[in-house]
Write a structure and sequence with these properties.
Elements lengths: L2 E9 L24 H14 L1 E4 L5 E5 L6 E4 L1 H10 L1 H17 L6 E4 L11 H19 L6 E2 L7 H9 L4 E5 L3 E6 L8 E2 L10 E4 L5 E7 L1 H9 L6 H10 L11 E7 L10 H14 L3 E3 L2 H7 L4 E5 L33 H23 L6 H7 L1 H5 L3 H11 L6 H19 L4 H4 L6 H21 L4 H8 L10 H9 L6 H14 L5 E4 L2 E13 L2 E12 L5 E10 L5 E7 L3 H17 L2 H11 L4 E3 L5 H29 L1 H9 L6 H20 L5 H14 L5 H21 L4 H14 L9 H13 L1 H7 L4 H13 L19
Parallel strand pairs: 1-4, 1-12, 1-13, 4-5, 5-6, 7-11, 10-14
Antiparallel strand pairs: 2-3, 8-9, 8-14, 10-11, 15-16, 16-17, 17-18, 18-19, 19-20
Helix pairs in contact: 1-3, 2-3, 4-5, 4-11, 7-8, 10-14, 10-16, 10-17, 14-16, 16-18, 17-18, 20-21, 22-24, 24-25, 24-26, 25-27, 26-27, 26-28, 27-30, 28-30
């Protein structure tokens, strides 16, 4: 009998975007990457699209698309970020689902997911419906088909949630073994019920009968193997993984087509366990090559083998909390490695505060929405259409379709604000906010920011005070770091707030330091500068003009008068107020121009404070990425002076260093530090260039090696990775061009002696692809030619086997039984 195997990966990261900006701001904890999404994409999501198969010499002999061979789901909010910032990975995921349909008899491997990882048993009926509908619609928009199965966040389940899934046409879910309460064999005369305590047989499909008379199929993953994937070394050893999967089959008492399937966080493979993507690829290769095994997905298995058992679940249960779903509403004892003395007693007050806020938002949406929408509830669910496509045409079409009457521009803004308010309310329930140990942690602060945006919109739309009550409820939540949850909200959530004035201030401050295009994007905002005039000197600059700021999310737009003054260093201030006309702007400009001509910084500041009584901004008020970009420009001249000084100190003392080394005397740390700093700056400059300065790189590398200079390898590795990727892509575009091959080869070879953590995946992919498509013909034409020899050398440096490369297997149909 054929043995069926399925590996499911749940790929998910919490949404990390600043709710006002609509983009992820820099996260220093993810360094050297910009943020955690970017880091995990590089360590896991990208590698799983082209996982390496190595030979005994450690050379790449094949690249495996993992996604098309497994069952998987991606969080919709993660895919939304990926489509904007990692479109090639996003496309690889979408194409993998198409390939899996060919491989698995028309059944795609991608599963849908509840939209923003809300714990469904804790959600009210409207939120269950919306979350499932949004998840299904997002899936259909990306994958072009209806989903068969849906991933429940944390596998948390109750019967009303299953009914809601059935309403949406979902056929099956994945659960943990201990979520099964009892089961029985189906048949003309059903067998007696058997009670379970985590011992449900996971090798069969199960049917859950619903009160409505419908049913839902359920698969219970093998808990021991799944746990070992996450918490032991199983994800490091593809052979051991393969052996464990096959070891789970038995002939004793099982007369149905057995299915061994596991479920794990997708980030296990490459992020949590470096190299896990290769172990998974190796295991999949072994499974595909085993004639006694049918590698399958759950849709295909369900179609061929309907459930032979009925099961009843433990209501309000999950896979990551032994107390049911208490981890997301109480101090149940579950933690992620809590420090001694720490408490999670903040979870219940936070849940109460968020529940209260969402109820207020829903009430405002219903009362105010009834004045503008034909059916507010329908419009709320259907708003996934504009979440997926914010284009003006699509937004206008949506509003026209759902409005009671043709909406005026102000009506359109109000309608979009209402929808944005309830979207923020949904996002405050993202499960990650309760999962970890401290209320001031990055995940919980993220949902507090969503709450801050929700309260802002709710107060604007209703005219009622809401935030004060919300903050008072957070004050009842104890913190292990700060005084309470309200202090965390005040410190980390409220400061993220931004509006049209704030965006206009960005334009003014940024214009002090560089020229911008007339219209440019700032996250989900658009800034249009109208006739900005700048007067600049090294230590004193002024900018003034008109600026139009608009929101992509709410279609708000307003014209402002802005004026900014730079007084040297980081001292910059910008005034923003409603545009009062050309005459007012002319007077302001004239006053600033007089102050500039006199070099009168105090006079310029006085002009700002008299014209903009309240609304002034500084560098401290800018979004984090823009703030750092400007500060980098401000400090660049000083840093270049320091760099040149370091170069001079090292150069002038180089002969003395050589002598001291010859007589085995200690080398002065101060001079070595100067050399290290100079080398660091030189390498940063080299890797920032589009060109390859080989002589300079060789010289710097030689100095680094000779004197053992300790570099900031994390930052340099990131810069060098981007630099090498640039040459790899150029080579991939025209691999027969010898100059592009030589450039890539030289770049890679020069990076090796620096021992930097350079990501060579892009170069390896290009080399592997050329080895299949170009190398055979070039080798046949001129076996000892320069191109062939250089390419073979590239293969050796990149550890890619270029001779007799094994091509990726085409998607094959599942074995017949």
């Amino acid at each position: 009998m054929i043995r069926h195997v399925c590996i499911h990966c749940h790929f998910y990261q919490p949404p990390r975007e600043n709710p006002w900006l609509g983009e992820v701001e820099v996260q220093d904890s993810a360094a050297p990457y910009h943020d955690w999404n970017q880091r995990i994409a590089a360590e896991c999501y990208g590698p799983c699209a082209k996982a390496r198969i190595l030979d005994a010499q450690g050379r790449i002999v094949n690249l495996i698309d993992v996604y098309s061979r497994i069952s998987f789901n991606f969080g919709p909010t993660l895919l939304s970020w990926m489509a904007r910032h990692e479109p090639r990975i996003h496309e690889a995921v979408v194409q993998a689902d198409k390939a899996s349909r060919k491989r698995f008899g028309g059944h795609g491997s991608a599963l849908a997911q509840v939209y923003n990882h809300m714990i469904l048993p804790l959600a009210n009926p409207d939120d269950k419906r919306t979350q499932i509908f949004w998840g299904v619609q997002d899936f259909m928009a990306r994958f072009g088909r209806d989903p068969e199965g849906m991933w429940l966040p944390e596998c948390a389940v109750d019967t009303p949630s299953l009914e809601a899934l059935a309403d949406a046409g979902i056929k099956f879910v994945l659960l943990a073994q201990r979520q099964a309460r009892r089961s029985r064999r189906l048949g003309r005369t059903p067998a007696p019920w058997i009670e379970h305590h985590g011992d449900l047989d996971p090798t069969a499909g199960y049917r859950i009968e619903l009160p409505s008379g419908r049913s839902m199929a359920a698969f219970f993953h093998d808990a021991p193997i799944s746990s070992d994937l996450a918490f032991s070394n199983l994800a490091h050893d593809g052979q051991a993984f393969y052996d464990r999967l096959l070891g789970a089959f038995t002939s004793a008492g099982r007369d149905w087509p057995q299915l061994v399937h596991v479920a794990a966080d997708g980030e296990t493979f490459g992020h949590h366990h470096p190299g896990g993507d290769m172990a998974l690829a190796y295991c999949l290769g072994r499974l595909e090559g085993d004639p006694s095994v049918s590698l399958t997905n759950l849709g295909l298995y369900l179609a061929k083998h309907p459930p032979v058992f009925q099961v009843e679940i433990h209501e309000n249960s999950s896979w990551s909390c032994i107390h049911g779903v208490e981890r997301w509403r109480s101090d149940c004892g579950c933690n992620s490695g809590s420090r001694p003395g720490w408490t999670q007693a903040w979870r219940a007050p936070l849940r109460k505060a968020v529940d209260w806020l969402a109820a207020r938002a829903d009430s405002i949406f219903e009362s105010e929405g009834a004045k503008l929408f034909k059916d507010p509830a329908t419009a709320r669910d259907a708003s996934i259409r504009i979440i997926l496509d914010r284009s003006p045409e699509n937004t206008a079409g949506f509003l026209s379709e759902h409005a009671l009457a043709p909406p005026s521009p102000q009506d359109a803004v109000t309608m979009l604000k209402l929808l944005e308010m309830v979207r923020m309310a949904q996002l405050t329930f993202t499960s990650c906010g309760w999962f970890f140990d401290e209320i001031s942690g990055i995940e919980t602060v993220q949902i507090m920011q969503y709450a801050a945006r929700c309260t802002e919109l709710a107060e604007d739309l209703s005219g009622r005070s809401i935030e004060k009550r919300f903050a008072a409820m957070l004050a009842l939540a104890p913190s292990n770091v700060l005084e309470n949850g309200a202090k965390a909200y005040e410190a980390y959530a409220r400061p993220a707030r931004a509006g049209l004035r704030h965006v206009a201030a960005h334009a003014g401050v940024a214009a002090l330091f560089s020229d911008r295009p007339e219209t440019y994007g700032l996250g989900r905002w658009t800034v249009r500068a109208i006739g900005l005039a700048a007067l600049r000197s090294p230590e004193f600059s002024v900018v003034s003009g008109q600026c139009q700021a608009s929101s992509e999310l709410t279609r708000e737009s307003q014209d402002f008068t802005i004026a900014a003054v730079h007084m040297g260093g980081h001292h910059a201030i910008c005034g923003v107020d409603r545009f009062e006309g050309a005459e007012d702007l002319h007077r302001l400009r004239a006053s600033l121009a007089r102050a500039f001509e006199r070099g009168d910084k105090a006079g310029a500041l006085s002009t700002l404070h008299s014209r903009f009584v309240v609304h002034t901004y500084s560098l401290a008020n800018l979004f984090r990425d823009e703030q750092r970009s400007i500060l980098a420009r401000v400090m660049a001249p000083a840093l270049e002076v320091v760099a040149e000084s370091n170069r001079r100190i090292f150069r002038e003392n180089l002969e003395s260093l050589k002598f001291l080394a010859w007589v085995h005397s200690p080398l002065p740390r101060e001079v070595l530090d100067a050399g290290r700093n100079a080398a660091q700056r030189d390498l940063e400059d080299i890797f920032a260039s589009d060109a390859l300065d080989a002589p300079r790189l060789k010289d710097v590398a030689a100095q680094v090696r000779r004197w053992g200079l300790e570099l900031d390898t994390g930052r340099l590795g990131m810069l060098a990775s981007v630099w090498v990727e640039r040459f790899a892509r150029r080579f991939a575009e025209k691999p027969r061009v010898a100059a592009r091959l030589e450039t890539l080869l030289t770049a890679v070879e020069l990076c090796v002696p620096l021992a930097l953590p350079v990501a060579l995946r892009e170069a390896q992919d290009a080399c592997f692809d050329a080895a299949r498509k170009v190398y055979p013909a070039m080798k046949a034409k001129e076996p000892k030619g320069d191109w062939v020899q250089a390419f073979e050398r590239l293969g050796r440096v990149l550890k890619v086997k270029v001779e007799k490369v094994v091509g990726e297997e085409k998607g094959k149909e599942t074995k017949k039984e």
